[in-house]
Amino acid sequence: MATHRATKSGFAAEAQRKINAKYSEELAQEVLEWVKILTGDNINVAGDMDNFYEVLKDGTLLCRLVNEIQPGIVKKINTSSMAFKCMENINAFLEAARQLGVPAQETFQTVDLWERQNLNSVVICLQSLGRKAGNYGKPSIGPKEAEKNERHFSEEKLKAGSTIIGLQMGSNKGANQSGINFGNTRHM
Predict the structure, then answer these.
(1) In this structure, is residue 56 part of a structural domain?
(2) Where residue 161 falls among pLDDT bands split at 50, 70, 90?
(3) pTM surpassing 0.85?
(4) Count H helices, E strands: the chain?
(5) Where would one find coiled-coil regions in this protein (predicted)?
(6) Inter-axis angle of helices 49-56 and 25-39, to 10 degrees?
(7) Highest mean pLDDT among 11-25, 54-68, 171-185
(8) Number of folded domains in the chain?
(9) Is residue 108 part of a domain?
(10) Residue 125, burial from CB neighbour count under 10 angstroms (0-12, 13-18, 19+)
(11) At 106, which CATH number?
C-alpha cells in the first residue's frame, strides 16, 4: 500500500506530481464502468484517483475481469488481504493481459498499482485490454484497433524512389571550409 513508503520530497515529489498530472479521471471512469459491465460487480465507478485505487488495489477484481474475457486464464485468485497475495493477483492479471494481446509497453508494474506509484499506467493497460476484449466477443472500450494495411509496390516504383534524395538527408549546397582555422590560434 502507499503507506509503506516515506513521503516524497524534492525531485522525487516533483516527479510524482508530473506522473499524477497525466492521470485522466474521465478515462478511469470509462474503464471502471466497463469493468462493472463485464464483471457484474456493484463497484463505485467514480474516476478520482482514490476510488480507482481502492477498487483495484488487491487485484481480485482485475483477475475476475480477465476470467470474464477468457474463462480460466487466471487459475487461482487470492482472497487474502496480505500484501504478497494481493501482489500475486496483480501479477496474475498482468500475465493474463499479455496473453490476451496487451503489448508490453502498455502494461504496468505491480508497484504502480499496489503502492499507487503510477495509476495512469494502470488506466492505459485497462484501456488496451478493453480494445482487445472485442476480439473475444466481449464489449470493448476505446478506439477500434487498426487492421493491417499492407502495401505492394512494383519494381518500377521502387527503383523510381531510389533516385530521389529527400530533404531529410540534408544538403551541402554552398558549403565550404573557408574560415575554419584548425590549429591556428589567435595571436595577441
Answers:
(1) yes
(2) confident
(3) no
(4) 8, 0
(5) none
(6) 30
(7) 54-68
(8) 1
(9) yes
(10) buried
(11) 1.10.418.10
